[in-house]
What does this fold into?
Amino acid sequence: MMLLATATRYALLEHARNRFAMVLIALFLPVWTLLAHAAMPDTPARLQLRATGELLAPRGNEITAISGALNAVTLITGFLMFAVTFTSSGFDRRLAMAGYPRTHLVAAKVTALSFACALISAYATAVTCLTWTPRQPVLLTAAFFCAGLTYGVLGVGFGALLRREVEGMFAIVMTSIVDLLLQNPITSSGAGSTITRFLPSYGAMQAATAAGFSTISVPQYVLWQLAWFTVAALLGLLAFHRRTRTTLTVPPRMSVPEQPTRRQQTADLL
Amino acid sequence: MTVIECAGLGVVLVEVIDVHHCYGKRRVLRGVDLQLPTGLLTGIVGENGAGKSTLLKILAGELRPSGGQVRHDGRFGYCPQQVVLNDALTVRQHLAFLQRAFRLGDLRHAQEVMEVLGLAEYADERAAVLSGGTRQKLNLTLALMHDPQVLLLDEPYQGFDWDTYLRFWDLAGRLRDRGRSVLVVSHLAYDTERLDELWCLSGGRLQPQMAGAA
It folds into this structure.
């Protein structure tokens, strides 16, 4: 338990010291969300929401604001986790080879990610509520939270597998853009396509849209998103395990009795 | 592992048997044999790209060799050539984190190493703001803080000032005298008189050199 607590404390500290991520949270998230609401036309867009089966007509700027907030949350959490995994993977390996249980290191990263996602998703909901009133703010927060978790563990996977920082940033940005652009009925005529069901934030987008414009609760889509998170977390765990493995078959911490040596002297310890 | 006594030396803690390694078609190691017994300060020198760091990564378990065997016994400490730290953490936090990893009851040994290397005054500084030499001191302290029986040190004095460099050799000598097996890898053949055994990695193989002769 102490091992997990220590690793979690330092994982949170790493996030808190990521100043660029703090700037993104403070500025990028509200600017993108509010800009989407202000710049897009408020003409109603007719769509049939798969999650509830209802025919809805949300304002174009409001549904784009949801899409923008999701985009901001996923980019920030993906970047946050990619940055810590990429920059500290060597140190994580050092810890693992020194005997720190890798499951504890991963659990600490997920705990810190969950904490960060809770704060960011609550903040994103608050920003959204500045310009219009979603019908179910709690469900909206849950959708942001689960999407953030999913992209956070995708960031861990990218950080463990990719060798250059720019590759990871490109992977996160493009994944989020393609994912959300294809699901936005304002920008994509293919938003109703079956293919969109397999996109990483499909569950969150369905739940967030229902939260914005319907009174029907759709917990199954939150669970759908959590399933995506679980699969992505397992892949991230495998990547992390591969990156921090040791090739030694004999446990390095096994001790042997002290032996007298040819140079044994009475030297003090250091 | 079977405990092996080296003739006239201590117990062999690391045994390298016919180790080969290739990067693609480039063969770096072509059959390396080495024994690291207790109470011996061993040096490996070689030109840039000779495969010294590759050999040390294999010894430390970071790299699986293309062929051959490495047998380990006892605790080992590995100081990689490239400094491996977490820039978000302070020196003290690094020690606390590794203390948990090594399951150490206290940081007495780490504090002693820090005193020797002149690192103690930076305890509350973040790794990101430390100078190159100070980062290397922390890198070395993390490798030594659990009082390992085998020390694998890859260019451990990079960036050290002259006084720290001398204190490093003093420290290495005292660890050897306490029965530790110390392996120092360098591309320079300076200070060979401080070594008990010297090898030159050339053509993918270790050639014995006379310690103190360079």
Q: What stands out?
A: The first helix of chain A runs from residue 2 to 16. Confidence is low (pLDDT under 50) at residues 251-270 of chain A.
